């Protein structure tokens, strides 16, 4: 068994607390499956600035380059960020830089509402249908966020000088193909349904996007493909989320829909994510982080939910190391602990009989023990 090299960057706020629990669980997986994990921790975000003067210190970046995957907490502190120029703030200087450095073009956000947590979902039970279990696949490095020209200029208006802001939406066929393949592959491994989300009724990009996805579908006969305009997709997520298996979105639509979908899981503390680069045989460089941020309101109090961080580690085992069985063991352990009634504050309801409110570390201990 090869050594699996992992960079663990906990970051700020609740990052170190939830990372500690994810590492506990990874060590339990290591023992159960006889793996060899080489996990090296390094500072990032404000922890990086305080330790080495940069949100992404050179040594941390060098560690990431030597690793096969990055398990990331979160960065940024609202009370400290404004003191820095925008480009030095942790989210830009660390997160965006890492995305770019490692060509992370595919963002995967699985959203699952365990039946036991139906009370935490903002939708009425009848709208939850058979249960919510979907995956948003978002293109991460193209589209409107990165296209050029991109600037604000001053021009002559009918009544004097006015300002005009320009963003440009650009996609090429190879960019659409590589993200669509990630979504088709994911659908094939799940329930075999792919919903392509675009705006082909209005945008040139939407027309090309839909053409490319439709053409690729011939290579995936076991996947049922349907198309939805993004406005309808946003509505359907609220009305009948159980109809979805995998949703494929360009960058901006995915940004919005993945957050809308995350709300369905009842708490940001339950939602993991994976950002992937190009595949290289059975392994693939990936960046794994919870959907939520540093939650300064919870930091240092042992109350944050570590499940999003733990499920991010499961995604890492699956996508970067091809260890599907180990990933499933982590997901099943989370499910068992939820079924046993353990709840951090964000998913606790006094009205739920048999539930027990626990802290971050007790939740992590229970999940590690259930591996
Ligand atoms: P946030 O996600 O930190 O918090 C939003 C809400 O969700 C809060 O009520 C918080 O308590 C709750 N929450 C989040 N994670 C939770 C968990 N694990 N358990 C229980 N509850 C949880 O978003 P915010 O308050 O807008 O941002 C706080 C800071 O985090 C900001 O500085 C922001 O820039 C940064 N941020 C970083 C990332 C990242 O590193 N990827 C992502 C989002 C926000």
Number of beta-strand segments: 14
Order of helices and strands: EHEHHEHEHEEEHEHEHEHEEHHEEH
Structural class: alpha/beta
Question: Beta fraction of the residues?
Answer: 15-25%
Q: Strands of the largest sheet, in order across it?
A: 2-1-3-12-11-4-5-10-8-9
Shape: globular
Distance linking N and C termini: 20 Å
Bound molecules: nicotinamide-adenine-dinucleotide
Number of helices: 12
For the residues shown, what is the average pLDDT? 96
The poorly predicted ranges are: none
**Computed CA radius of gyration, to the nearest angstrom:** 21 Å
Largest sheet report: 10 strands, mixed
Helix content: 25-40%
Q: Please, could you describe this protein's structure?
A:
This protein is of the alpha/beta class and about 375 residues long. About 40% of the residues lie in helices and about 25% in strands. The chain has helices spanning about 15-35, 45-50, 60-65, 90-100, 125-130, 175-190, 205-215, 230-240, 250-265, 305-320, 325-340, 360-370, and strands spanning about 5-10, 35-40, 70-75, 105-110, 135-140, 145-155, 160-170, 195-200, 225-230, 245-250, 270-280, 285-290, 340-345, 355. The chain has a ten-stranded mixed beta sheet, sandwiched between helices. Strands 6-7 form a two-stranded antiparallel sheet. Strands 13-14 form a two-stranded parallel sheet. Strand 8 (about 195-200), helix 7 and strand 9 form a beta-alpha-beta unit. The longest helix is centred in the first third of the chain and has 19 residues, at about 15-35. The protein is globular and about 65 Å long. Nicotinamide-adenine-dinucleotide (NAD) binds near residues 18, 81 and 295. Nicotinamide-adenine-dinucleotide (NAD) binds near residues 77, 78, 268, 297 and 346.
């Amino acid at each position: 068994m090869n050594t699996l090299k992992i960079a663990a960057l906990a970051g700020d706020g609740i990052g170190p607390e939830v990372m500690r629990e994810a590492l506990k669980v990874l060590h339990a997986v290591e023992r159960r499956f006889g793996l060899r994990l080489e996990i090296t921790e390094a500072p990032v975000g404000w922890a990086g600035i305080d330790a080495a003067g940069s949100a992404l210190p050179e040594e941390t970046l060098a560690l990431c380059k030597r690793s096969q995957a990055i398990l990331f907490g979160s960065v940024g502190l609202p009370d400290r960020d404004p003191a820095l120029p925008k480009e030095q703030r942790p989210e830009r200087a660390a997160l965006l830089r890492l995305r770019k450095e490692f060509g992370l073009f595919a963002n995967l956000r699985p959203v699952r509402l365990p039946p036991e947590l139906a009370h935490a979902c903002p939708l009425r039970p009848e709208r939850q249908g058979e249960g919510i279990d979907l995956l948003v696949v978002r293109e991460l490095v193209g589209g409107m966020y990165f296209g050029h020209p991109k600037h604000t200029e001053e021009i002559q208006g009918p009544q004097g000088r006015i300002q005009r802001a320009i963003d440009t939406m650009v996609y090429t066929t190879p960019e659409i193909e590589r993200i669509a393949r990630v979504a088709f592959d994911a659908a094939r491994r799940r329930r075999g349904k792919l919903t392509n989300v675009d705006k082909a009724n209005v945008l040139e990009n939407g027309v090309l996007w839909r053409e490319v996805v439709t053409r690729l579908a011939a290579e995936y006969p076991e996947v049922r493909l349907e198309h939805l305009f993004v406005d309808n997709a946003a509505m359907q997520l609220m009305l009948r989320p159980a109809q979805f298996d995998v949703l494929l979105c360009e960058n901006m639509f995915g940004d919005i829909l993945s957050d809308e979908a995350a709300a369905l899981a009842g708490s940001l503390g339950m939602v993991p994510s994976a950002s992937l680069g190009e595949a290289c045989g059975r392994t693939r460089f990936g960046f794994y982080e919870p959907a939520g941020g540093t939650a300064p309101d919870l930091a240092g109090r042992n109350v944050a939910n570590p499940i999003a961080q733990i499920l991010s580690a499961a995604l890492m085992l699956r996508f970067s190391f091809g260890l599907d069985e180990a990933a499933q063991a982590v997901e099943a352990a989370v499910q068992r602990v939820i079924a046993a009634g353990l709840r951090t504050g964000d998913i606790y309801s006094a009205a739920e009989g048999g539930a027990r409110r626990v802290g971050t570390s007790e939740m992590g201990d229970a999940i590690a023990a259930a591996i």
